[in-house]
Amino acid sequence: MSRVAACGCGAVRVSVKGDPQICWVCHCDHCQRLSGSIGLFAAVFRDEDVTAIEGQTTTHRGNQEKWPGAERYFCSKCGTSVHWINPAAFPGMRLVATGCFSDPEFPGPNLAMQTKYRHRWCGDFDGADTFEGYPAQQ
User: Fold this and answer.
1) Distance, CA of 99 to CA of 40 (rounded, Å)
2) Closest by Cα among 105, 138, 113 to 42
3) What are the domain boundaries of the chain?
């Protein structure tokens, strides 16, 4: 199975094969601000399962002290955050914003973390392991 994630204007596209290794949502205050939503939803693919990355992106290097080597890639035209790497937490993997797949059949999160920051009106996700902090901290 192959899938394509795209930014809002379609200029940046990430093609992947197979299923993600994991799908997660992080509700920490930082991820809420980065996403502009109740959490940051990501599908994690092995580098070898990413078959193409197309389009011009702008790169942002976030908190290098906490996440050395992390880079987020945004569409240079519309500003959508499409994909990123975080070698400290996900070596050899590429994270793709779940919503960029625009596929109602795409797998939902099987991991929800930092739920202590989650909005009260946001419930649990069916089948997701839930952690108040990061899984490694529990």
Assistant:
1) 10
2) 113
3) 2-120
C-alpha 62: how far from its chain's center?
14
**pTM summary value:** 0.89
Length of the chain: 138
Q: Looking at residue 102, what DSSP letter applies?
A: -
Contacts of 36 (CB under 8 A, 6+ apart): none
Locate the DSSP E strands across the chain: 2-6, 13-17, 22-26, 40-46, 50-54, 57-60, 71-75, 81-85, 93-97, 111-113, 129-130
Q: What is the pLDDT along the chain (138 residues), one digit of tens a residue?
A: 899 999 999 999 999 999 999 999 988 888 778 788 888 899 999 999 999 999 999 998 877 677 778 899 999 999 999 999 999 889 999 999 999 998 999 999 998 988 888 888 988 888 888 888 888 755
Q: Which two tokens stand for residue 50?
A: 């990413």
For the domain with range 2-120, which CATH number is right: 2.170.150.70, 2.40.50.100, 1.10.2020.10, 3.40.190.120? 2.170.150.70
